[in-house]
Amino acid sequence: MTLRFDIHAKDGAARTGVLSMPRGEIRTPAFMPVGTAATVKAMLPSSVRETGADIVLGNTYHLMLRPGAERIARLGGLHKFMGWERPILTDSGGFQVMSLSQLRKISEDGVRFRSHIDGAEEFLSPERAMEIQRLLGSDIQMVLDECPAYPADESQIEKSLALSMRWAARSKAAFGEQPGHACFGIVQGGVYPHLRQRSAHELREIGFDGYAVGGLAVGEGQGAMFKVLEATVSHLPEDRPHYLMGVGKPDDIAGGVLRGIDMFDCVLPTRSGRNGQAFTRGGPLNLRNARHAEDTGPLDSECRCPACRQFSRAYLHHVVKAGEIIASMLLTWHNLTYYQDLVADLRQAILGGTVAACAGKVLAAYARPPEAAPEA
Amino acid sequence: MTLRFDIHAKDGAARTGVLSMPRGEIRTPAFMPVGTAATVKAMLPSSVRETGADIVLGNTYHLMLRPGAERIARLGGLHKFMGWERPILTDSGGFQVMSLSQLRKISEDGVRFRSHIDGAEEFLSPERAMEIQRLLGSDIQMVLDECPAYPADESQIEKSLALSMRWAARSKAAFGEQPGHACFGIVQGGVYPHLRQRSAHELREIGFDGYAVGGLAVGEGQGAMFKVLEATVSHLPEDRPHYLMGVGKPDDIAGGVLRGIDMFDCVLPTRSGRNGQAFTRGGPLNLRNARHAEDTGPLDSECRCPACRQFSRAYLHHVVKAGEIIASMLLTWHNLTYYQDLVADLRQAILGGTVAACAGKVLAAYARPPEAAPEA
């Protein structure tokens, strides 16, 4: 194993520790901001670090299309290119191929598709997905998997899972030996516990540096997602990091931590920020709402980010309504800070044996109905 | 006079000094970034300050429409609202009414128009323009003037000028006494030297804290603009700041300084930045151009901004092409830094008696034909 993972404390199924990599330590539970196209949208890398992020995620699909993996390699790799010297995890491109590309055709060999940017024909196989991630210089590389649409019946999921497991073995073989870099497998199996468990055991047979749970947060609902985690995580190696892909809302993260998840990524804090939505300790806020127009208070009085320390809700309301870039900058910064503080609080609570209470506060704040649609 | 202006050195017609205001000193020649709608687009106020800006400009037209001057006053004024505690100069709204609004109708009393945002009917008079600027808490307030379209014949310009001068007297009366705040008059008169001189003398009769030259950079060309400055500036009080409104390209600024201008504002560095255009010591660059795609060098090797210190031209090319917000952030930051370094170099050169050589370098870099249209 090239990836050292020290678990410092447990509280129920929740764990806190440190994943050590040559480019830096990753405190877990960790939230990884998404840096799709070699940028965490609307943030400078130094600001991403200021929020507390130890690692960011890059998207193989986006980067292979523009500017291209070979080009990034010639320019010295993704870290140097985007100005982020700490660890980067890259996905394999499978999820975006399914959600963004056109005319995709899946075969045993891989997936053929057309770029959503210029319509050019592209091909992604397990071997090419791993080659791209190696060219990028990714610290944690993900196997290529098939991401079935939701809902899908059991036989479809079973067939898709079998393909994903064959691709996992090919991905691992293609990853080969890369000292200081890690390769994670991805558990699939839909909402079917026995398929999830089969997937977990097959991945353990191959042997990975970490184990992700994929194919969730695709419409199955939080309750079903938590049930899948409960049926899956105990079948993963306890001494390896567990990563819940593409999740989620603050309460999803709190619930995931309670069920033994160590790593998360999600576009929600960045995408919502660009859309005038803020995550606060009191729950979600829609800054477009007219009730903020003359509110001189901060977005979140406990938050340390520039949006909360230097500006009022009234100002944020104004720049959101006016479509100003600073609205995206400030709300993204705030949301990423909130997410980092959320996982930092959970880490602290696990050390203190109070994770249930800590997660309960988050679940309470986010179980409320979302704020009404904008009035003005 | 509430505005203290100390001229430290002269070199030909060029001057360098300090304008002292309660909210801070303004080193001249000064470039004022434009903060249209209570934000210098794509920049945090702290970053604007880091570029070296001593003062920013706010637009009365935009702020009166959204969020409204009375609202900003209730929220504690524009400085507090936008998080910029140093001096702010506001225009009177006249220029934007002419260029942005619909169905405008000018009378002796003022100008009636429809908002470009929601079509609401609005009215701006000299008295209302000054009231708005007072509500905003503006440090330097500009008189309302009429900005005639270019080209216009001499009789049209003369008639418009007469109205602007009556409005200037009403604006000054409406400004009244505001300790620590300044009121500037605006010289009009098109490209007609005798009208410019008449305007200058009429404004001196009224008496202002500073004198702006308006109605330029509207299509008359650099040569004609410089001729107007040569015919005008010597008729302005030497001991008061001279402000060339809405100008301009780096060579326009260098040429303006050579002709006795102390203050400039322009959307060019910010707007061009959002459009993939950079100003460098070597001349203008279009980052969309494919020749930058694998260029590992910095935008401008002498520049101190984050875009130049932390990223390559190849990265900037990528994020411009991908339409990423960080492209606007980095290129705006760079362009504002370039503009601040430009005026800092000119200030230093005036102190050293070498302003002609300093300005000559800028004129040479920017007299070249602009880079060809993007290839990819």
Structure commentary:
2 copies of one chain form a homodimer. Chain A has helices at 45-51, 60-65, 69-74, 78-82, 94-100, 126-136, 154-175, 193-206, 222-232, 250-258, 268-274, 306-310, 313-321, 325-352, 355-367; strands spanning 4-11, 14-21, 24-28, 30-33, 56-58, 88-90, 102-106, 111-114, 121-124, 140-142, 182-187, 210-213, 242-244, 263-266, 277-280, 283-286. With 376 residues, chain A is of the alpha/beta class. In chain A, helix 11 packs antiparallel against helix 14 (325-352). The first copy, chain A, is built from 15 helices and 16 strands. The longest helix of chain A has 28 residues, at 325-352. Chain A starts with a strand and ends in a 9-residue tail after the last helix. In chain A, the strands form 4 sheets. An 8-stranded parallel sheet of chain A has the order 4-14-13-12-11-10-6-5. Chain A has a 3-stranded antiparallel sheet with strand order 1-2-3. In chain A, strands 7-8-9 form a 3-stranded antiparallel sheet. Chain A is globular. Chain A binds chain B through residues 37-39, 41-46, 66-67, 71, 74-76, 81-83, 274, 293-294, 296, 306, 310-312, 314-315, 317-319, 321-322, 324-326, 328-330, and chain B through 37-39, 41-46, 66-67, 71, 74-76, 81-83, 274, 293-294, 296, 306, 310-312, 314-315, 318-319, 321-322, 324-326, 328-330.
